[in-house]
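User: Show me a protein chain along with its predicted structure.
Assistant: Here is one chain, sequence first, then structure tokens.
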Amino acid sequence: MNRKVLIPIASIIVFIGFVLLKLDWDGADRTHELWEALEVTAGGFLTLMIFSFLYKDNAFYKFAEHLYVGISAAYWMCVGFWSNLAQQAIPHLSQSLSEALGQPFLGYIWHYWIPVALGLILLTRLLPESMKIGWISKWTLAFIVASTAGLFITANLQANFIAQIASTMSLPLLPDWTGFGDFLSNFDLSYEGQFVKMFSNWVIIIGVISGLVYFFFSKEHTGWFGRVSRLGIWVLMVTFGAAFGYTVMGRVSLLVGRLTFLFRDWAGVIG
């Protein structure tokens, strides 16, 4: 028998075997336990299929990848339909459709047809190329890109630009300063100490200024100006490194979660 047929058959047999091992047969109705065993075993097999890419690209990995993408697309399509069309658009367009979907009719508003029309125009991308009308979908894409950019520019300016400038400018260089003598007599290296607060504020202010100097291209980066810009490079590298480290920690936590699922929930090796 061909290997391409043997491998799927063997995989199905092993899958069924793991499902049966997860069950505790005592003659009672085990329908609920059967579904739980199927769920856990399927999750374990799909996790191993994804991890098989560490060895090399193979059919098992491609199957799990396509399954994940397909389920994700279907899930978000259902979420988008019920959260946007069923709960927001249709209750303002048709009373009969609202009642059919179990949603209350909120009153007819004619301009709700505009996003519906744009959505239908976007679906022309799915029509055969022989019809030659798929280009119309670019109108909807242009509207989505332009409106999203316009909405998020103001939000990002307020949250990431203006707010951060205000926070930096409001930092005191000498917090809770009552004199040099009091500073020495109450010297404290704890997080709440005056020295740590002062040091942190100076690091933030100098880092922000040096980082902005690095992006100032109207003056040649030589002399003291060049030294400040090089300090800005170090600040940027530390920032990017911290962001990358935070991302790696997030991915490692996901890996730990999957390994815990494999060895505890599926294999039962750990308690």
